[in-house]
Amino acid sequence: MYRDYTVLCSSGMIQTYEASSAVAFLQVITPDQSENKQSIPKQSIPTPQITVYENDQYGGASYNLRPGRYTKEALTQAAVPDNWMTSLKVPDGCTVEIYSEDNFAGTMWEFTSDSPNIGSAANDQMTSCIIYYDGGVTFYSGDLFQGSAVTLTKGTYSLNELIQLGIPNDSVSSLAIPKNYSAIIYDNMLFDGQSWLFNYGTHNVGAACNDKMSSVRIY
């Protein structure tokens, strides 16, 4: 006489088999194959922004900056004057590196929380800066970190998933990447065709890659 058995293993795999005194048949089913498997829809996460202020104690004029690597040109595009900042607000998960010279050169000061006064050495010294957000990679529709922004966590995103999350086909011109992240952009919808690897953010992905993203891997 045959009997059917189903056993849930500690690894999450399911073993099903039929057995008799003469023979046994074994099948191993991964959780993805089980009938009770439920797919979890991918979601974007809110894109944070820091705020830089003209005076101490968060006074004077102020400007918001989203994650990115801001050269002097990029800061000018964001309306932030050169050698101007005295205080800043930094949301959780963000790190700000400010540099005394363009292109992330010169003296660097790092901030991971609000500072009502960045100190006499750093005061009015910011000519370029890098804003990291450890939650994910931020994709921008414009160069210099302008336009619409969508932040995605680690994973793979097909064209249909990108569209559902607010990134139209062939619409990315710049991106911000946190430390210890990488992103591979593909010009075809299912992770094939020409690809570009980014290990850090850039204010312009380049002429070849510009407005070419149809799928992406973030790891």
Short description:
With 219 residues, this protein is mainly beta. The protein has two helices and 17 strands.
Provide a descriptive summary of the structure in words.
This protein is mainly β and 219 residues long. The chain folds into 3 domains: 3-33, no CATH class; 50-133, Gamma-B Crystallin, domain 1, CATH 2.60.20; 137-218, Gamma-B Crystallin, domain 1 (Sandwich). 5% of the residues lie in helices and 36% in strands. It contains 2 helices and 17 strands. It has a 4-stranded antiparallel sheet with strand order 6-10-8-9. Strand 8 (94-101) and strand 9 (105-111) form a beta hairpin. The longest helix is centred in the middle third of the chain and has 6 residues, at 72-77. The chain is elongated, with a radius of gyration of 24 Å.
Number of DSSP strands? 17
Radius of gyration: 24 Å
Fraction in helix? under 10%
| Order of the strands making up the biggest sheet | 6-10-8-9
Average predicted local confidence, pLDDT: 87
**Total discrete domains:** 3
Give the structural class: mainly beta
Q: In percent terms, what proportion of residues is strand?
A: 35-45%
Distance between the termini: 51 Å
Gross CATH architecture of the largest domain: Sandwich
**CATH superfamily placement of the largest domain:** Crystallins
Number of helices: 2
Write down the overall geometry: elongated
Q: Could you state the order of secondary-structure elements as H and E?
A: EEEEEEHEEEEEEEHEEEE
Tell me the major beta sheet. Answer: 4 strands, antiparallel
